[in-house]
Amino acid sequence: MTATRSSFYRDLTLQLDVIGALVLRELHTRFGRNNIGYLWMVGEPLMLATVIGALHAFQPGHIGSTMPPVAFSLVGYCVFIIFRGIFNRAESILESSLPLMYHRMISVLNLSLARVVVEAAGCVTTFVLLYTIIILLGFAEPPARPLWAIGGVAGMIWISFAWGLNVTAVTFEKPTLQRLVHPISYFMMPLSGAFFAVEWLPVYIQNAADWFPLVNIFEITRYGMFETASDKHLFPGYLIANCAIFTYTGLIGIRRVRNRIHLH
């Protein structure tokens, strides 16, 4: 029993070391060391999110909502770009990293996890920085229910990772499908709930929206961030089940893809 536990911890430590090395490689490949270097991981989403927040700085509440418009739009955009970044880059994971498949310790899952870490770290850091700034400027209040907010962001990271695994598996060596990934992510923006609350919709649309995991994630996140947010459309159990199912299918998919990779 002790030997088995020791072997497990040793293997886990080794995998974490591999993922850490892949994270550093991803940072260096994408951002380099010139100019601001790795800080660009935060700088790029920071600029885009700042523009979105500024556009809503002098607008009244949305459709009579008491949620502050700047904070509302900032939460929506910063959480959505977690999905967009992870989902969009899932289709290029294997093609850009095929030489690494020579190494026995590196798996498709390692590559996926490394990209998730980079994307999520940049977006979450941006979110924390900007939200702190708008609190200091008086455009928002501190999160009303922090654990719910953290759960919503964690849910977005998880489902983006799960869907990304499936994208990696389905699009490998299929250029036509790869080109569809980016348009799909942009199509998701107006449907995701990033910029609307379910309670604003007609009842018959609310029932349909409740089945979409991304909408559920934004409802959970806003419930955590805003005191006045509604709790009528929170389904964490459904979200967890959704994430678990897609993670399972994604893991099966990338395992099959690994057997189709031919190194020359």
From TrEMBL:
- Indicate the segments forming the ABC-2 type transporter transmembrane domain, all copies: 19-226
Protein name (database record): Capsular polysaccharide transport system permease protein
* Segments crossing the lipid bilayer: 38-58, 70-87, 108-140, 146-172, 184-205, 235-254
Q: What is its main location?
A: membrane
Cited InterPro entries: ABC2_TM (IPR013525), ABC_2_transport (IPR000412)
Per UniProt, what is the membrane topology?
Answer: Multi-pass membrane protein
Q: Which family does it belong to?
A: Belongs to the ABC-2 integral membrane protein family.
What organism, scientifically named, is this protein from? Rhizorhabdus histidinilytica
